[in-house]
Amino acid sequence: MECVFSGIVNRFSVILPYFIGMRTFYNTLITFVVVALKITALFNKKMAVFVKGRKNVFDQLASKIRAEDNVIWFHCASLGEFEQAVPVIENVRKLYASHKILISFFSPSGYEIKKNTPLADVVVYLPMDTKRNVKKFLSHAHPNMVFFVKYEFWPNYLYRLKALQIPTFLISGIFRKNQLFFSKYGKFMRKALDAFTYFFVQNSESLNLIQSLGYKNASLSGDTRFDRVSQQLKQNNHVTFTENFTKDRTSLVCGSTWQEDEALLLDFINNASDEVCFIIAPHKIDKEKIELFKNQLKKKSVLFSEVNKETTLQEFKILIIDCIGLLSKLYAYADIAYVGGAAGNTGLHNILEPATFGVPIVIGKNYEKFPEAIELKEKGGLFSVSTPEETTAIMEKLLYDISLRKQAGEISGNYIQNNKGATEKITTYLKQNFIEK
Questions:
Q1: Cα distance from N-terminal residue to C-terminal residue, the chain
Q2: pTM here?
Q3: How does pLDDT run across 224-266, given as a tens digit for each residue?
Q4: Does the domain made of 236-418 have the CATH classification 3.40.50.300?
Q5: Measured between alpha carbons, how far is 325 from 318 in angstroms, rounded to an integer?
């Protein structure tokens, strides 16, 4: 995630410089937030996981990393950034076979799912960005090399990495004009960028922005997610129950949906032809919310957890996936994909997963921060909707205009193939500058 506190800093930046320095303000603020989080954790289960998970980080590091170990550290905000890092981690493992891989997460949604990933020797939560935590974390981890993914900019970590002269890289980086770096009060954040040995950025806008600050150690490498999702085509994507459910029917896979997405889809689902079947994979497995949505459905539906050998799946029109870990394979069975997150303000989920299977994609209206969605919409492989009526109209068009559906799907598939290669560019740089030398 972008620096959690940048929004707060921006709001106060007009008056604060008259009283205290921005760096002092940041350190005061983050100390206050750490205390506030601990109090909030007493009443909020999600925050309790966030706080509790960080209690034993230093013990974990001490037990798994020895003083003589060589360590390469990857930091990912959450699950999406981890998936972005996977192809780079795999290549780095080959380049540095004797090194231990440390992966840290900011969010429970990343850590709890990937804490046992075989790609890493150590997986931990990232301690909050206080000076004390930073010094202790880097002392225990003593990394030889560090990779931050997308837009994780924690100034105290970056200042310390710079002081220790540890090679540090940003991969699949994204910069936007509204970030604190580009504010007249963002000097302390701009200075933190000095820690980066090299910036591998996703798009031309990001490259122009970072270069406008005077950083020439940057290049347009692209997004490693394209490499990651393209690997899915080489995997075994066979799912028996899905094959039985979708057989001889047009299938719509709705992935990572929130309540706002389900509100857009409900009328269309309830009134769709019986020749259409739906697979719905909510972003959060919340039994009460799933049951609430299920009660609004007029067609016969079944939960994945209810399916057994005796279940005749063809009797049902809607299959609700109440577990995690299946979605990337389910898209292989889609004729049309709806990807959630953009109907509300939670953030658009991964549209590249269905795109790699050559599937036309429908999303909500809030996608302006997602360049891949903007590009794919301009090319004609993705469609945005903002009302139930618009949703029904575009879904019916894609259902019954087979030529349009095929064309949009081909555009999506080609978009993935044409944008691969970011991982290789990063790997080549590492070979030329840190291995061959």
A1: 34
A2: 0.86
A3: 999 999 999 988 999 888 999 999 999 999 999 999 999 999 9
A4: no
A5: 19
Residues of the chain with CATH 3.40.50.11720: 6-222+421-435
The CATH class for the domain spanning 6-222+421-435 reads alpha beta
Query: What is the phi/psi pair of residue 29, to 5°?
Result: -65, -45
pLDDT digits (tens, 9 = 90+) for 323-382: 888 899 999 999 999 999 999 998 999 999 999 999 999 999 999 989 899 999 999 999
Label each residue of 277-316 as H, E or C: EEEEEECCCCHHHHHHHHHCCCCCEEEHHHCCCCCCHHHC
- Closest by Cα among 363, 297, 361 to 331: 361
Q: C-alpha angle with apex 231: 226 to 233, nearest 5 degrees?
A: 110
If residue 102 lies in a helix (H) or strand (E), which one and from where to where? strand 100-105
Instruction: Give the span between the Cα atoms of 81 and 49, in whole angstroms.
Output: 20
Ranges of CATH 3.40.50.2000 domains, the chain: 236-418
